[in-house]
């Protein structure tokens, strides 16, 4: 089996042809020439399939499940991918277990299921309640590391417990990426992610995907995409596939810098609750080291209050005040501004980009100093 970097560079490429590009350009087509029986046609209509999707899907399956056959299905967004699993695998009368501390978009979507007669059980990531809530459930939704708190749960253990009870397991693998964690190898039925984040990595594409090893479940998810039209544009698919070639170098650099940033922040008196799975003192580090191969680019921490956090964000020069994470440019935001997350007003989620670690740390130090001094001057 090839290494992660080689796989990322080569995955999904067609056999080399003389004088042809290594990665064919996007296929812009609403329809295809369709003689004869449509049932045997590889491509029929733009909502059903596209050769540019196919190449990306082959690449994603190779990254999420190297060495074992799997099928990937791409979507217009991470939420489209999430919805495809929830709405095809859960029925009225079923129970779904979701993280109470996970992405608020997923929590909101799960609540919509309640209107269709589904029971939703929210439990904290890594808590004993995750396993206890499996009895009578149809689907366990895991987010590890969780967003934005960066808590981690034992995916393999939960998957084994779920399988013994006939419960399906889906893992949101957005933060870890397939190079940081392989949920299918840990026993999950579905690996789901927003490719908007680190996978494409440039902050210019929206997409999501689902990967599973069961062909029938993949077809259910694919059929949902076709029915609701949650389709990815060919240009977005091509851009994402192009970005995979640098995935390993990006996530390695970002994880190393994120650890350095976390260590620097932990030394600051104004900063509390620094979290990063790679930080040796992090509550989740031992478990994360057991099931993750890379620890991601996100660092979370808490500043004294809302005003201090706002002053800090305004003073940053190399870090954009923006949502999302995983991009080549560093971002940070006061997460409480959105509502829906159980975090304090001074809680910051930072996504570490590709800037030099020394420059980022210097910028953070300067912004913290400025925020503190401005607060002291205001108090007179």
UniProtKB/TrEMBL annotation:
Gene3D superfamilies: Aspartate Aminotransferase, domain 1, Type I PLP-dependent aspartate aminotransferase-like (Major domain). It comes from the Bacteria. Keywords: Pyridoxal phosphate. The keyword DNA-binding does not apply. Its cofactor is pyridoxal 5'-phosphate. Belongs to the trans-sulfuration enzymes family. This is Cystathionine gamma-lyase.
């Amino acid at each position: 089996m090839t290494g992660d970097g080689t796989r990322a560079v080569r995955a999904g490429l067609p056999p080399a042809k003389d004088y042809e590009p290594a990665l064919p350009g996007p296929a812009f087509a609403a329809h295809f020439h369709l003689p004869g029986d449509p049932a045997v046609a590889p491509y029929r209509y733009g909502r059903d399939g596209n050769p540019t999707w196919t190449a990306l899907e082959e690449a994603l399956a190779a990254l999420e499940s190297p060495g074992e056959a799997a099928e990937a299905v791409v979507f217009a967004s991470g939420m489209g991918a999430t919805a495809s699993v929830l709405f095809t695998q859960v029925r009225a009368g079923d129970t779904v277990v979701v993280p109470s501390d996970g992405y608020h978009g997923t929590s909101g979507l799960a609540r919509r299921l309640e209107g269709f007669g589904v029971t939703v059980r929210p439990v904290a990531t890594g808590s004993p309640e995750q396993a206890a809530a499996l009895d009578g459930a149809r689907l366990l939704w895991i987010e590890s590391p969780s967003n934005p708190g960066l808590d981690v749960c034992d995916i393999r253990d939960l998957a084994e417990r779920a399988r013994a009870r006939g419960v399906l397991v889906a893992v949101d693998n957005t933060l870890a990426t397939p190079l940081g964690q392989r949920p299918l190898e840990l026993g999950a039925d579905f690996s789901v992610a927003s490719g908007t984040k680190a996978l494409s990595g440039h902050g210019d594409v929206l997409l999501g995907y689902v990967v599973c090893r069961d062909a029938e479940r993949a077809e259910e998810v694919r059929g949902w995409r076709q029915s609701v039209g949650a389709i990815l544009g060919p240009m977005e698919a091509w851009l994402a596939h192009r970005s995979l070639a640098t995935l390993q170098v990006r996530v390695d650099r970002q994880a190393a810098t994120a650890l350095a940033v976390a260590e620097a922040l932990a030394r600051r008196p104004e900063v509390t609750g620094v979290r990063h799975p790679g930080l040796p003192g992090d509550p989740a580090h031992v478990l994360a080291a057991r099931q993750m191969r890379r620890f991601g680019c996100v660092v979370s921490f808490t500043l004294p209050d809302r005003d201090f956090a706002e002053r800090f964000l305004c003073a940053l020069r190399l870090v954009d005040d923006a949502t999302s994470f995983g991009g080549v440019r560093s971002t940070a935001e006061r997460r409480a501004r959105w509502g829906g997350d159980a975090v304090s007003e001074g809680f910051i989620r930072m996504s570490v980009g590709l800037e030099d670690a020394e420059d980022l740390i210097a910028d953070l130090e300067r912004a913290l100093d400025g925020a503190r001094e401005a607060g002291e001057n205001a108090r007179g």
